[in-house]
Design a protein that fits this description.
mainly alpha; 105 residues
Length: 105
């Protein structure tokens, strides 16, 4: 096994690594990765976990109504696939544009 990536180390710290046994064996035999894991572990222990707040009552319904109002009533906006010549075929509006009203083109 090659050295562990930072992603593997973080996932292992949180108990979300797919190959936890392999990672444990690697850490036992690789002082470099073990030192990196200990450094990441020390850092992550200092971060206080914060629970995501529950959205207000009706949030989902209001959001969908707003999206429907801004997108579906203006078909050209939903069907447009480019903004200028450099967009590479990406959609022209972002979710923030649609949800927040965005600029009309």
């Amino acid at each position: 096994m090659n050295h562990l990536s930072e992603e593997q180390i973080v996932l292992h710290y949180y108990g979300d690594a797919e190959n936890s046994g392999e990672i444990e064996r690697h850490l036992a035999g690789c002082s470099e990765c073990r030192a990196q894991f200990e450094q990441v572990q020390s850092l992550l222990k200092q971060i206080e976990l914060v629970e995501a707040p529950e959205p207000a009552a009706g949030f989902e319904e209001k959001t969908w109504l707003n999206l429907r109002q801004h997108c579906c009533d203006k078909p050209r906006r939903c069907q447009s696939t480019t903004r200028g010549s450099g967009s590479g075929g990406r959609p022209s509006g972002t979710l923030a544009d649609v949800a927040g009203g965005g600029n009309e083109h």
